[in-house]
Amino acid sequence: MSAIGIHDIHAATAHHVLDLDLLAAHRDVDPAKYRLGLGQDRMSVPAPDEDAVTMGASAAAALLRRTGTDGIRALLFATESGVDQSKAAGVYAHRLLGLPPQVRTAELKQACYGGTAALQTAIGLVARNPDDRVLVIASDVARYALDSPGEPTQGAGAVAMLVSADPALVEIEPVSGLSTADVDDFWRPNDRDVPVVDGRLSVDAYLDALTSAWDDFRARGGADVSRIDRFVHHQPYTKMARKAHARLAEHTGAGIGADLIEDGLADNRQIGNSYTASLYLGLCSLLRRDDSLAGKRIGLFSYGSGSVSEFFTGVVRPGYADAMRAAGGMDLDARAPLDLDAYRALHASSGARSDDAETPRVTTAPFRFAGVRGRARVYEATA
Ligand code: CAA
After folding, report:
1. 30 CB less than 6 Å from ligand 1?
2. Whose CA is nearest to atom 34 of ligand 1?
3. Against a cut of 0.85, is the pTM above it?
4. Beta strands 186-187 and 196-197: pairing type?
5. Structure confidence at residue 353 as a pLDDT band (50, 70, 90)
6. Which of 161, 189, 220, 360 is the most exposed place for a label (fewest CB within 10 A)?
7. Residue nearest to atom 18 of ligand 1 (CA)
8. Per-domain boundaries in the chain
9. Is 151 an annotated catalytic residue?
10. Region 248-264: what's the mean pLDDT?
């Protein structure tokens, strides 16, 4: 069977940005705790007319301008900040993107692991019908309670990936290491807008899941650690990925230095957590910054609280660097800065609602959430 993997990838984030020094000053915390202790500098904050659907559709629209829509038979939308308990976020995106009706559209959820569930499902679909292509969208708004420990790790972002046979960017290899464990480290009950978090437990659960998934990966014949050239670990905040890498080095006894994860962390420092998208924002960050990866193997660790995790690998294809350069990327300096009061007001006013209301027109992204009419969510192009 020919290679299957990521043919194209595009990331997007939210309209606003908050500098974490402002949050540190407000909370009377040493700014170094956020910059060094958590490894985060800024966080993306959605405008009132943005959500997981608008960010995901914006990322996908940019990708589809390059790839076209021919052969796309499925749209798999991964999110844990979904906008409806029944209708898939992907159905809204499907219309915004002008996809034909002959598409299998569904939403996947398992905390931050959902993006990987979508990617692996897409690979399975392409393996069955190699001429089909699958659009995977991972998109989330990571929002915690104001003044909670998780607040400085908030963020928002989306990644769209086109999965196909003979991919231009990264071949995903068949071996995966898996680990599921029922643990209450982070979850969001149906009647809450923000998650319930046991932060300490979540860090331990993540690290335990990493070694468990790694051991399964090796038992199934996955590459020895010495044959993996770069690593991207799920990034709720970049320090967590550093902890993961150190744990893997200790567990394997291998000399895998922090230099092997550095390029994958750069965007997350500026964006914050993006849950399902976070691992793939990291992959995008690496592919855009390092042009020496052709033929190299990348190890990817996906963790979703609750918990489900997977360690898998991809081999970078020749020509990827030119493709990434031609595609361009996010302009993170173009985000509109918020002061602390504006950020807190936005945070307080966001959250689930289903009563009819128009949404203020703020975002300059390609798509916006116009409001609720007849109890239905209305999305539209901004231009
Ligand atoms: N200068 C430099 N570093 C400082 C510092 C200073 N002045 N003050 C503190 N630090 C360091 C601490 O030493 C600590 O470093 P280590 O982790 O290396 O020990 C770091 O800053 C954080 O300090 P605390 O542990 O005191 O931070 P906290 O308790 O206030 O919050 C957290 C940390 C619990 C992870 C919190 O951010 C949180 O609840 N986050 C949400 C949950 C999360 O992201 N969990 C990660 C695993 S779960 C997952 O991955 C799924 C997901 O996406 C949510």
Report:
1. yes
2. 199
3. yes
4. antiparallel
5. confident
6. 189
7. 37
8. 4-170+326-381, 174-317
9. no
10. 96
